[in-house]
Design the sequence.
């Protein structure tokens, strides 16, 4: 069954059972405690907490999610992905444990002709939280699961929270037995590779306070008992499509196929190249979805998440032997496979491509040289008898060669070294302080004027509208990053923008330049700190 069909069936099943279908929210969480949406329930959090009244008692969605804590496991295991889709059904003070369990069982085990997923009930195993007698009783007596296929697990596995203060509760998971070729018997409590978790039913009842891991206080009850469930679409696809891991399902495999074609490396040829192909597939999918939702590569927050995964994808393509830019074609495959479910990707293709291409171009320029710097530093550290890459080398790699610190950690790790992260962070802070001090005094340099002249030749002089207006609508006719023309820029970049008309007064005649903002059609905002005319008549913001 195709991924798109799994999604359609999910939504239809719950809609027919009184749930309102809610479209996936953007990955950019509208929640100050979260960078990116990491579970289907996130958009519903105010309803669980009783901060807002839900317009429905039951809802269902297929939500785009990103999780990065296990990024280094991607490609090495069956089921770690940074991007995935979580199918969910939610009850806000309506049905509770029994309703959730019976609905889940019905959808999983009813035949495909009857609209279900047609899984063999004998292969389904259940886990419940260690003291949740009620859940065990429901699975056994109401649903009819044999007691030997119900197991109890502790807080780590069967208690769910968002990782931050908020709603939480015990949960119950449904796992699928992939069979003896995937390892020893004994149920999900002993073997989570063979018995793959597919669906998590959370009995959302309590509010948790701050704490590390599962060590937090329960502050009290939620205003009502709720249900939050999450089924991993890609995991179910893996089972229904009879493939061995998540990267081989229809939507991901298409990206692997393209990467094979671009590099000439066959999937299945060797373990290390298989891992690289899977990383490329996962990370390119995540990158396209992130850019689609308006994230641009940068050095902080979401921008950093995107930069890190994009650069990992580019590096893995290089490891596979790719020569030159490849990201454009990979982006196209992702859009082709995901566009039916997310039509906005198709509509926004040009922008997504240009952001991805710009990031690839920037990284490719320095990847080879940076890798040499890193290898040399590793050799030096080793011959000095040290297992630690010095902080100044990590800083150099970041600052000059654009290596995200996590990439340096990983590449050093591959050669058996750790990195002096404290030293790295100290140097980063010193640099930030210096930059702040400089910014006040800074004036644009204009050593090489040819890029500005080219814009002037093509677009003519800038029309100045500032004698009568303080705002204007205009067209970008030139963009420079680091003094050279660039097709796109990303969050956090210092850019020079040339417009066909502008209300900004450029420094001259003894007057300082205007400051203000440019709002671009894409929604991006550029802070204008200075305006200069390096070439007469051409205003550079
Ligand atoms: N919130 C739960 C999870 O993320 C169930 O949706 O697993």
Sequence:
């Amino acid at each position: 069954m195709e991924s798109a069909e799994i999604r359609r069936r999910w939504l239809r099943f719950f809609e027919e059972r009184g749930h309102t279908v809610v479209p996936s929210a953007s990955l950019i969480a509208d929640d100050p405690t979260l960078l990116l949406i990491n579970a289907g329930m996130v958009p519903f959090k105010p309803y669980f907490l009783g901060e807002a009244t839900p317009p429905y008692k039951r809802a269902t969605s297929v939500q785009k999610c990103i999780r990065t804590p296990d990024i280094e496991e991607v490609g090495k295991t069956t089921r770690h992905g940074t991007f995935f889709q979580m199918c969910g059904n939610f009850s806000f003070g309506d049905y509770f444990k029994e309703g959730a369990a019976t609905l889940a069982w019905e959808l999983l085990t009813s035949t495909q002709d009857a609209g279900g997923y047609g899984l063999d009930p004998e292969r389904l195993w259940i886990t419940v939280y260690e003291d949740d007698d009620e859940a065990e009783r429901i699975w056994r007596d109401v649903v009819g699961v044999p007691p030997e296929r119900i197991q109890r697990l502790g807080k780590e596995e069967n208690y769910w929270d968002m990782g931050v203060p908020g709603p939480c509760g015990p949960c119950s998971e449904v796992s699928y037995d992939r069979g003896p070729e995937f390892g020893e018997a004994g149920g999900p409590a002993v073997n989570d590779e063979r018995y793959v978790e597919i669906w998590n039913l959370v009995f959302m009842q309590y509010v948790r306070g701050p704490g590390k891991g599962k060590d937090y206080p329960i502050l009290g009850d939620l205003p009502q008992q709720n249900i939050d469930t999450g089924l991993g679409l890609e995991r179910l696809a893996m089972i229904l499509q009879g493939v061995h891991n998540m990267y081989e399902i229809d939507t991901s495999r298409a990206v692997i196929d393209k990467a094979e074609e671009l590099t000439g490396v066959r999937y299945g040829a060797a373990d290390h190249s298989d891992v690289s192909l899977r990383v490329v597939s996962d990370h390119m999918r995540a990158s396209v979805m992130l850019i689609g939702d308006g994230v641009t590569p940068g050095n902080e927050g979401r921008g950093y998440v995107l930069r890190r995964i994009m650069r990992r994808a580019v590096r893995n393509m290089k490891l596979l032997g790719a020569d030159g830019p490849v990201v454009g074609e990979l982006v196209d495959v992702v859009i082709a496979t995901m566009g039916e479910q997310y039509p906005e990707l198709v509509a926004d293709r040009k922008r997504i491509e240009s952001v991805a291409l710009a990031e690839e171009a920037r990284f490719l320029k320095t990847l080879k040289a940076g890798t040499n710097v890193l290898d040399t530093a590793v050799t030096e550290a080793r011959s000095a008898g040290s297992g630690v890459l010095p902080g100044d080398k990590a800083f150099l790699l970041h600052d000059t060669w654009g290596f995200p610190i996590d990439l340096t950690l990983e590449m050093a790790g591959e050669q058996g070294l750790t990195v002096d992260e404290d030293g790295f962070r100290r140097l980063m802070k010193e640099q930030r302080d210096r930059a702040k001090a400089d910014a006040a005094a800074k004036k644009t340099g204009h050593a090489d004027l040819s890029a500005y002249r080219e814009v002037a030749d093509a677009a003519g002089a800038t029309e100045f509208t500032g004698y009568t207006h303080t705002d204007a609508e205009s067209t970008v006719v030139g963009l420079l990053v680091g003094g050279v023309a660039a097709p796109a820029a990303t969050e956090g970049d210092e850019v020079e923008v040339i417009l066909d008309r502008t209300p900004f007064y450029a420094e001259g005649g003894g007057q300082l330049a205007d400051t203000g903002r440019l709002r671009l059609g894409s929604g991006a905002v550029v802070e204008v700190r200075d305006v200069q005319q390096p070439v007469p008549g051409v205003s550079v913001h």
Summary: Residues 349-383 form the longest helix (35 residues). The two ends are 53 Å apart (CA to CA). The mean pLDDT is 92. The first strand starts at residue 20 and ends at 21.
